[in-house]
Amino acid sequence: MNRTDAIVIGAGVVGLAIARELAASGKSVVILERETRFGSGTSSRSSEVIHAGIHYAHGSHRERLCIAGKQMLYDWCAAHGVPHRRLGKLTFAANAGERARLEAIAEHAFASGADPDSRWLEADEARELEPALSAHAALFSPSSGIIDSHTFMLSLLGDAEDRGAVLARNALAERIEWHCGEWRVTSGETTLAAQIVINAAGHGSWDVARSTEPLDPARIPPRFLAKGSYFTYSGRVPFAHLIYPLPSHGGLGTHLTLDMTGAARFGPDFEWVETIDYAVNPEAKARFLEAARQFWPDVDANRLAPGYSGVRPKLVGPGQPDADWLIEGPDTHGFAGLVNLFGIDSPGLTASLAIGEYVAGLL
Ligand SMILES: Cc1cc2nc3c(=O)[nH]c(=O)nc-3n(C[C@H](O)[C@H](O)[C@H](O)COP(=O)(O)OP(=O)(O)OC[C@H]3O[C@@H](n4cnc5c(N)ncnc54)[C@H](O)[C@@H]3O)c2cc1C
Fold first, then answer.
1. How many structural domains is the chain composed of?
2. pTM over 0.90, yes/no
3. Less CB within 10 Å around the terminal CB: N or C of the chain?
4. Residue 147 CB: number of other CB atoms within 10 A?
5. What is the DSSP-derived secondary structure letter of residue 191?
């Protein structure tokens, strides 16, 4: 049987960041990815926004790892030539009725210390930054940005491979067993042994945990799915910053983001679903148009077209307050060398490098 120090299940941005961190600490690492290509799950279906970390519950993994991860990410991008831009973001109140909520968000943001240069803008100040923006007031977060997430993942994999890590593609982790003082992970005809197993399988984390012997099934949280669709906008938009409405339940609201080419997209919206289906419903266009018109009355309906979608793995369902990520290591479940990650939705891309460091520290 082949042996390695660590097996990472899942080659999304989180698994790749953990694998790279473990490889950097001198461990031999094998990454198992069930698809042909790395990063083809949720990690290729995001807004590609580098979040400031201003919106998350104080003390949560999301807040802590986002704030730390943001700085690590900017540093990584600079050192590895990953395309990114620190655009800044405006979260706006559309009318006087939304002002109190924006004030509460601003207070929370200032208290978080996530973005020390963030500031409150009245309507005329917001218009100085974004002349086409129709808003009652806005919160400006200058440390928010955008990133080419695929190049970022490629750089993580390249760095891990340079340190000896190996990516096995088309390698579905089917069974994980604790046997004679080591973990044995089976994929098809192959079994690999290691002292460390990291379950970073995104939507697949629940199946991986269920097939981990002797993990108590009662430890495995419920899984909910929340789809987020995007509509693209052909042609230029008159905005230079990321534009966000007030956050809505479970997400940050249907916002405007720009990619590294300057192309604009609106989304993601938020829809509870039972199964993963990435098709975008063209009939949602009216809703997207309404969301865009809230802050950009001149948006041209003819330029909006269905884009792509992603599905957020969630730990709580409809009507429940949003939950933090669940990252369980030996101290929680009692099994040496095992870490399970559940519900790593946004800002998992921003936080990925800090998640890698945190997970390595749990071992
Ligand atoms: C609509 C949307 C927008 C988002 N926008 C942002 C954003 O702007 N900024 C931000 O910071 N975050 C954002 N996020 C969050 C971010 O995209 C995720 O947190 C991150 O991509 C999760 O990465 P992951 O590696 O955990 O999961 P994934 O990318 O899903 O990777 C898991 C991998 O595991 C593999 N796998 C599954 N089961 C197995 C198995 N049994 N064996 C082997 N391999 C397996 C899968 O094929 C997959 O490649 C967004 C998320 C969504 C859904």
1. 2
2. yes
3. N
4. 23
5. E
